[in-house]
Amino acid sequence: MTEMVRDTVRVELGERSYDILVGAGVLAEAGRHIAGAIGRKRRLVIVTDENVRAAGHLAVVEQALGAEGLPVTGAAIVLPPGEHIKGCDSFGTLLESLLGRGIDRKTVLVALGGGVIGDLTGFAAACALRGLDFIQIPTTLLSQVDSSVGGKTGINSKHGKNLIGAFHQPKLVLADTAVLDTLEPREVRSGYAEVVKYGLINDPAFFGWLERHGEEVIAGDDKARRQAVTTSCRAKAAIVGADERESGQRALLNLGHTFGHAFEAACGYDDRLRHGEAVALGMVLAFELSVRLGLCPAADALRVRAHLFEAGLPTGRADVPEVPWIAEELLAHMGHDKKVCDGRITFVLARGIGKAFLTSEVDTADVLQVLEG
Ligand code: GLY
Which end is more exposed in the chain, N or C (fewer Cβ atoms within 10 Å of the end residue's Cβ)? Predict the structure, then answer.
């Protein structure tokens, strides 16, 4: 049963602090919450994609804004769905389209969609007229628990993903858990990998809760979903509040991503592997590498693998036969990651579940061994 409960998570960043509101039905209250965050006078421009419009979410938001009398400049900008719009060309087109509407510095962009829309719109907000305010309304599990929170915005370059971007915090995040019912199950499972990540980084009790309730989160139980999204956002808010620009512990959020990005790059970022699926594989490998280096009990790595497997996520080569799994090539992709510094790859390893840490002291030979299985 759907409850009308709302959780509020505060991201504490001084004068740039903001709230994340989590709950089923938040979308229909968007007007009230946006008015509370930025007032009623500022003009809004909604940026979304065709899938989000087709699912009916744009109409709900437009109605909610209209009901509160909030001024919206022109019809929503509705982009084609997919990662390919997160490039320089589409970005330029989006900026020209915004400027063509006569936006001013008080205009507020509303990013209604998944990670692609959030990252692209957030970066447009960071650049247009040297910086506009923006609001995130994430519509996928992945964007609700990760990309909409923390102010990383950006687009892809032909040299790699997210290589062009800015830190630009939103003014408000509205995470409607009921919206997740409109996603295909594969997309929900993919986002679930990022939820598991928070348990593995520093919250073993949350990981234990996910072992007991993960099935409910994936299946769509509203209470379980709200708890999973809220706990994830709280974890991310704490890390971002302490290290907004990733000079230290924010890099823990990359658990599973060093390996994961290599798999995504090997697939050319196509649909053979969704981001969360790549992260699931990466987290399994990060734990296996930690065991190999004598840092982590093997039982913990087995628990991680078993839980991700039960969640329907890939945990090894046999689960992704279509992925080109060539250890040397994957290692080369890791060397191109933007987190590489002075030629050294930074890994997020673990001393156990909930005990992640950063290190650049890993031998390539050990990484290759783990990749070769
Ligand atoms: N997605 C990782 C971060 O926001 O830092």
Answer: N
